Fold this protein.
Amino acid sequence: MSRRVAFLGLGIMGSRMAANLARAGFELTVWNRTRSTAEQFAAEHRSTVADTPAAAAADCELVFTMVVDGPQVSELILGQDGAAQGAPQGALFVDCSTIGPSATLEIGQELDERGFGLVDAPVTGSSPKAQDGTLTFMVGASDEEFARIKPALEAMGELIVHCGPRGQGQMVKLINNAVAASNAAVLGQALIVGSKADVDLDALVKVMGSGAGGSTMLDLKAGPMRNHDYTTLFKLEHMLKDVRLCLEEGQRLGVPFPTAAFTRELLSAGMGMGHANDDFAALIEPLQGGAGVNL
């Protein structure tokens, strides 16, 4: 596999992922909407900055995208000066964004017609795991494509899961995030009930963590919720997008997901309260308001 890759999108996650590619010895060309961000990254990680996505993709067999949503991915790859305008024939696009299977299949079909390929490889793990290269990748790809991209993914992640053909990585990611957000919502409700009952919340968290009530969300979000510390690991507005996409896919399939629907409404309320750019632990705020309790 070629060690020459392009990376488009250097936000909270993308910058850390790209840094791990650079550290692993990949020859990296980067592009970011805010050029100064790309220039700072390149100065720190021996990368080349491109003026456009098309220029970034030139001579690269792998082109990674890590942005917010489907329209952004489509514009970066297929738009004017998009990466598909500059990539060599046979290049494989690896989208690590969370955009849902429908958008992935649509973009992939157009790339197929142009002589390219598309793999969906969304991630879970938030910024700390992106930093230390221990992300989980959920990959939708053929066996051949999976083998082709795996070395690069292993530079950024600890667990690389081949979920099936194109689109299946996205579906697994959406379900996973809907469950994670719903777990956070349940945790918030438990803390509020405990607070109203004058329970020692330290004791409650300790007991839940020791048994079947334990979860990653308990470990990560109980403290921030109790301290109202919404330092961003995963933006609330991005979690809302992921849960919404999961519900849309469920609706398309005729399958209800009522717990996720409740969580979507909490996240929507959090957006309305001004917490869009805060960590999604801020969903505790509308829960507190509904219960008349302040942790």
Remarks:
- The mean pLDDT is 97.
- The longest helix spans residues 168-196.
- The chain has 13 helices and nine strands.
- Residues 44 and 86 are 26 Å apart (CA to CA).
